[in-house]
Design goal:
This protein has about 190 residues and is α+β, with helices and mostly antiparallel strands. Helices cover about 55% and strands about 20% of the residues.
Length: about 190
């Protein structure tokens, strides 16, 4: 920071006794200080929230992994495009259980053929279910939550400071226009 910027910053402090410093200028500087503190405070809050979200999501993923198991199933029908999307294919598959043969329809690769093996995930009751999430997903969920808190706090602070500054600028510009019209009319001798 240059010497001029330091002096200017010191002169703009809200408690400066200078009578030329407008109350609105004092308010904007005070608002900037409050926003700066909020932005700094958002860092540890975002870190704590990100850690909490990570911990909860890691526990949920561990629970998913503990309650699901994978079996190798054999494709028994030709892969067909899914009705909703043309680039995803599904086929009927079957696998052997204690109770006999189980069958379901699942997503397969386009080039899959009858007789290929695919992995099917089952829940505790043996019903087909979605694949459990990767443990690394919890890291991204926690980081995402922290980033959302930080960015939203920073953006809100920036919008607040610049919005108030813009309103102050418009108000001061309107005041200057009134003053110049008054001076101009006095110089011309107009009485309005």
């Amino acid at each position: 920071m240059s010497g001029y910027a330091t002096v200017r910053l010191w002169q703009m402090r809200p408690w400066n006794p200078n009578p030329l410093l407008r109350p609105s200028d004092r308010f904007v500087v005070l608002l900037r200080l409050v926003v700066a503190l909020a932005v700094l405070l958002a860092v540890p809050v975002a870190g704590a929230l990100g850690t909490q979200v990570y911990t909860a999501d890691a526990a949920a993923i561990a629970n998913e992994r503990a309650t699901k198991s994978a079996v190798d199933a054999t494709i028994t029908s030709r892969p067909q495009p899914q009705s909703s999307t043309a680039h995803r294919f599904e086929a009927t598959v079957q696998w052997h259980t204690d109770r006999g043969v189980a069958t379901t329809t699942t997503n397969v690769a386009r080039q899959a053929v009858i007789g290929d093996n695919v992995r099917v995930w089952l829940d505790r009751d043996g019903a087909p279910t979605a694949r459990p999430r990767d443990p690394g997903a919890a890291v991204f969920t926690g980081i995402g939550a922290a980033v959302v808190v930080l960015v939203s706090t920073w953006l809100t602070g920036w919008l607040l400071v610049h919005g108030v500054w813009w309103l102050q600028y418009l108000r001061h510009s309107a005041g200057w226009d009134r003053e110049w019209r008054l001076i101009d009319s006095e110089l011309r001798g107009d009485k309005q």
